């Protein structure tokens, strides 16, 4: 809950932090291999100069400011500088193509854009003529921009220099503008990933973000000593809460990696105490560990496997403060000395007190692996419209198959149709310029339709089944439940499967598209002496089809043990010739499947999965990194899988 006299906007939080802890390190950034540090006092000086510079250039209260780039201190400063003047930051995904940026720039009516480098400047210049309201572009990194002569293009340092002159002439301006902000003001517009259509602009107030952040900090016992690594897209609500809302409310130290390619190295440097990663990153880290382990010497491999088995048996019980027999306790301590400790140190996890995963389900084996090492990883359930936090697994009561219990001040209920609904201080103000969508999602009494289907167990833990709109039934004569995301997540628990798309609505059985994980399957192939030249070549190998079929049979075996899902076993699949890609419109920028795009683009392949052919030809347009388009042709094999156990299931082949 709001504390008496506590700051109610992030500019006020900054003034408060700098006033009390001016010399304390608040941010670090790795540049050319060296960690640069910024104190709270330095950040206030930088933000003050930038805010005054933007004011000198005409930024008005209510103006929208696009923020585009990797996680950089200067871009985090830009957000709070805009807010100091009553402006509204609108972060964009840094890997979005120019046309995607154009939609957000136009829809949000952005007047100013503050970007990282030449790459982002070039994308904005491509759409500038189609965004007449965009008046000014500010860039931080000047490399490659020396000969750009556009009159509306300014260096970050130049804006700050103008701001310092402005501040000298009007020394009371900055504090006066900051004081005008209120907790119920619009703080930020975050655009959804747009899985079913155009992204929607979610409007969040300062109170939405600050109250939710503060409640989470109090429940989890987090304080000013926390170190976090800020590497997720700034346009994503998760980064905005962890690296912005909680950063200011909790007084963390925020660390920006050198680049997206150095995240794991920089993670090792920092050794964060509080860490968030989507399931895929946890899976990738575990895959790399297992690959390195298999390449180790025989004795090291045997010792590691032995103690990892001990950890699986003992570690989770220790983390839950449950009783452990003396022998197991001794073996676990020895395992920590020989295996777990060095492994966590190598990964940068030795200091983690709390870690979250969210966005998709995480495999129970993967989840249990990390917890068995003593890493307090927990599942979080939330969404942009809730300012993230709805449910979190409580300490001492972590169930791998649920997303935990409600957070403080959050109410939860399950509608008659099985949809999860919630109400909380974090509930958004509405969708920007979209009253119809707002009315559909947000009821007058504050309850929000999550769009997810789920249920509460006897102990109040929430279990999510799938997106409500995606849950349907097979046309198999039995009305078998079809929950595609549930099936896809089970498939993606495999280290060899990077992406999966399941089909089955009003079909006689379930089929699937598979994307292999090039690194994991490539390593697997090299160990077996299989030569390949490209992703498409590897994906087409019969040995890889055998590997994938084995993973599907493993999933089918688990489904056969679930009475409601036994009829949803996969009976037909193909391995796609290319990776699904956000640039091709097949995935969102947060890597969620755009089902409508997949159905429209690959309808011929879907139909083939429900026919008798063993192969099908495909010709598809792809978009290259430089924006050029091309055509890819391939002959894909179709393979049938016999479902397990039930005699009543439809058979293929």
Keywords:
3 domains; 5-stranded parallel sheet; GMP Synthetase, Chain A, domain 3; disordered C terminus; Luciferase, domain 3; alpha/beta; Rossmann fold; 653 residues; 21 helices
Description of the structure:
- This protein has 653 residues and is α/β, with parallel strands linked by helices.
- It has 21 helices and 29 strands.
- The strands form eight sheets. A five-stranded parallel β-sheet has the order 4-3-5-6-7, with helices on both faces.
Topology:
Elements: H1 10-20, E1 25-31, E2 34-39, H2 40-56, E3 64-68, H3 73-84, E4 88-92, H4 98-108, E5 110-115, H5 118-127, E6 136-139, E7 153-155, H6 156-169, H7 173-179, E8 186-191, E9 201-205, H8 206-220, E10 227-229, H9 237-250, E11 253-256, H10 263-270, E12 274-276, H11 279-294, H12 298-319, H13 326-347, E13 354-357, H14 364-372, E14 377-383, E15 388-392, E16 405-406, E17 411-414, E18 419-423, E19 430-431, H15 435-441, E20 448-456, E21 462-467, E22 472-473, E23 481-482, H16 484-492, E24 497-503, E25 510-516, H17 518-527, H18 535-539, H19 542-560, E26 570-575, H20 595-601, H21 603-609, E27 615-623, E28 629-637, E29 639-640
Helix pairs in contact: 1-2, 2-3, 2-6, 4-5, 8-9, 12-13, 12-14
Outline of the structure:
With 653 residues, the chain is of the alpha/beta class.
Output the radius of gyration. 26 Å
Helix % is 25-40%
**Proper CATH architecture of the largest domain:** 3-Layer(aba) Sandwich
At CATH level 3, the topology of the largest domain is Rossmann fold
- DSSP E strands, number: 29
CATH class of the largest domain: Alpha Beta
* Helix/strand class: alpha/beta
- Give the strand content: 15-25%
